[in-house]
Amino acid sequence: MTQTKLYPRTALILLTALNLLNYIDRSILNAVQPLVQSEFHVSDAQIGRLTTVFLIFYTLAAPFMGPLADRYSRKLIVALGAFAWSGVTLLTAFVHSYQSLLIRHTLVGIGEASFVTISPTIIADLFPESVRGRVLGVFYLAIPVGFALGYPIGGYFGTHYGWRTPFYIAAGPGFLLGLLVMFLREPERGQLDSLPETRERRSVLGLARNPAFLAATLGMAMMTFAQGGLLVWMPTFLSRMRGYTLLQANQLFGLMIAIDGTIASILGGWLGDRLLQRTKGAYYLVSSVSMGLGIPVMAVALFSRGSAMVPGIAIAGFLLLLNTAPLNTAVINSVGGHIRATAIAVNLFVIHFLGDAFSPWLIGKISDSSSLESGFVSTIVATALSAAILFYGIRFAPSVKLHEKPVPMGAHQE
Asked: How crowded is the C-beta side of 111, counted as CA atoms within 13 Å?
């Protein structure tokens, strides 16, 4: 394989590995929540507020990172962000109060915003539009796998050596991967795009008049609300409401997310690319159908106490994760390369502000006054809204240029 073909794959692997660490770090807190609550004597609403604070500052930082990335070196900003959140994660050893933990989550959120905002734009400039679903399926595979690894890592080391220990394990590799990012060659912005840069696609103000971008973003926001709430509270739900030990809950849920996410991330991207040959709205169609099918399955998963509960959780997780690659591909293809980082920053701001920045807190608040089962009703409502928005957005999908033969990943990069 020539260096020309090898480079995009090398960059994809490196950025995916960094994304994996990013989500391992996030899910560790979910795994050790009861231990944190026991030490600091805080309520469900307060523990949910940790994730809310992280996502608020993560969301507020994203709009600043996007314009920077559209003007300056993207790999430099990604590397500095990796150094920042790895360093703060390592400093968790000095956290000995609930207020300090809140500050810790604030700083990690700012650091992670740089990486998550910018990395997809680098990947998009390494591969043509017709294969981006599959490529981004690999990149976003890090989300479920990262969460899946974070649960058992947090559950095992947290219960055996204290809840701070797993954070140390997650921090170290981030410094090394951030350093390796510095050696990447940065691709030209928009070099493989086939769509013309219309007013809606080439300017930040045009995003407000870009229905393809708006539909994908609002649909993702409702999806993120549901996913975020379930990921934060499911181990606690299984241990508190369904009789599992905390370690068993983390291992079971982590295993389900690992299997679901591995298959769903790859399959969702492949389905989107495959159906793109038949309909321009393929990415929206795959996502809306998966969300719609998830509604009754989620009801079984969350309210059944019998043998149907575990399969219900597994199938619901698969359906919610199936649209990760298609939806992110829809957002990336909806705008031109020269404002793509800014568009992703706006997308991140909206999906987290309307989604998982508040769903963990809201579920915790309802749980304090009623039960976790009652709190989970909000995730079913959000899933239904997501399905409706994405189905409506099919008509606005852009018509990307298709290749007559499958394009090998990396074959177009110089």
From this structure: 28
